[in-house]
Amino acid sequence: xxxxxxxxxxxxxxxxxxxxxxxxxxxxxxxxxxxxxxxxxxxxxxxxxxxxxxxxxxxxxxxxxxxxxxxxxxxxxxxxxxxxxxxxxxxxxxxxxxxxxxxxxxxxxxxxxxxxxxxxxxxxxxxxxxxxxxxxxxxxxxxxxxxxxxxxxxxxxxxxxxxxxxxxxxxxxxxxxxxxxxxxxxxxxxxxxxxxxxxxxxxxxxxxxxxxxxxxxxxxxxxxxxxxxxxxxxxxxxxxxxxxxxxxxxxxxxxxxxxxxxxxxxxxxxxxxxxxxxxxxxxxxxxxxxxxxxxxxxxxxxxxxxxxxxxxxxxxxxxxxxxxxxxxxxxxxxxxxxxxxxxxxxxxxxxxxxxxxxxxxxxxxxxxxxxxxxxxxxxxxxxxxxxxxxxxxxxxxxxxxxxxxxxxxxxxxxxxxxxxxxxxxxxxxxxxxxxxxxxxxxxxxxxxxxxxxxxxxxxxxxxxxxxxxxxxxxxxxxxxxxxxxxxxxxxxxxxxxxxxxxxxxxxxxxxxxxxxxxxxxxxxxxxxxxxxxxxxxxxxxxxxxxxxxxxxxxxxxxxxxxxxxxxxxxxxxxxxxxxxxxxxxxxxxxxxxxxxxxxxxxxxxxxxxxxxxxxxxxxxxxxxxxxxxxxxxxxxxxxxxxxxxxxxxxxxxxxxxxxxxxxxxxxxxxxxxxx
Length: 675
Description:
Helix content: 40-55%
Number of strands: 8
Number of helices: 27
Strand order of the largest sheet: 1-4-3-2-5-6
Shape: globular
């Protein structure tokens, strides 16, 4: 069998080589010869070029080739290329040949892009031989979005044909993408009563209070009596939603459903923040595949109320990113969700992936062919639509089975208290809903954090670290301006290699990049200038703190925390002393004597509060404080004043005359005690 595998591999390699050679011959004899000659020729580089240029034969051939290239570029729309190629002052400079090479590359790229565009239009017009399946409801291509059929291979594999997108979808969004270097401002929820009065706050979820006070539907908190098995895929309607009318029909169907499974397909490689391409929604009876590119401007108003309705249970799997993508692209917030991935974690299943759950509960082997597919492609092939609906078609049945298992594990064997694991899963899912999308934001030291993510970062010296910081800043600026991902513009490993080599001319830069980044080649002149200026600066504009500075900062924070804790402890201790003093003063028994010579007018409020005391083992009722006689023109004293006056160690005599000196002194002492 090993011999057969090796033989088959060798035959396939030979077949591919023959096809490539046949293609070269078909392209044309001159082109084929030029390619073969270029592969077998090692042209002199850098200093060798100047040395070889001293030989008349070499110089004459280079001059002739330069003139031909200039003339061809002139014919292809590059003004001045022909005159520059024959200018003796320019033609003797090696860097001019580098610029000439870049012009050739740029012109070829532009013309190949034009060819792709023409072929794409031919596909849309039906002249490209497209025989793939048409989506339900007669989907039409999104504005500016062109695709190949992505037809299945006769043996069942992926298409070996070229699948391309001639125009980027984000260039045709009604609302341009915001790639500014500021935090994400959450848009108002579709359920907000007055969106004009809504004031967004970075990091604040608009529906946080609703999520904190969320009441789950009763049927979601208990296990189902019997899980509802889904109908076979080929017996279940699948609706491809790409028109406003189809979207309205889908929403009307969802309004009648109490539970639905939801999933998203996303693209991120040719976009800075990424965008949602497809939304899959399945109920117990129907599967929907929504073209999120075609209907991007309508999805918020259509699906926002459904997603924010707590009475409708939305079943996701691994919804951490899905929730954030809905917020970023459509301003949709999910309220009322069951995340099967969180349920798998609560149950501590061997695997938390959807493929395991489908296999374990449904006996379905997940199709992984399109996990990394380019979901911008339109029209979607039948295989891609089938893959998309497969993610949600069985998910409601998995939801039923998981609730049953959560309830069973929570009950256990009866020896332990019942654990409501369904509620635990719902609470964890609510926490996922409460997460908020965070836009990539950079600051002065972001470059250093990015540099440390390189597994083979090592230690760059300060000048080359300055180059890395400058390249990082250029990459961030390009990504935001052109809406491209950092992996497309300048991958981290390539940026580290460029910082180490620090090329100072376009040709050396292209030798370092090895064609890994089209934008680096396009902006080679700008990048060389950036690298040269960074080397001249000698160090990055901002440096991370050293180990000693970091320790000093942490030590200062520790001291500040300790001082704050001491202040809090002292404050609590003082409050405790005051409370204890007040309690002792209130509860301690005191002798009380009658005050004044008037008649007893009834017990005071304080005397009633004192209750009884224990004396010689016998309970004795607290004495009643008589109402004090009030002299004409005097202000009556309170019960507390009379108590304090009565508790004085000096006996207080009943005043027979208001003008008696002892009575006046006693009243003065009582008023002072009252104050």
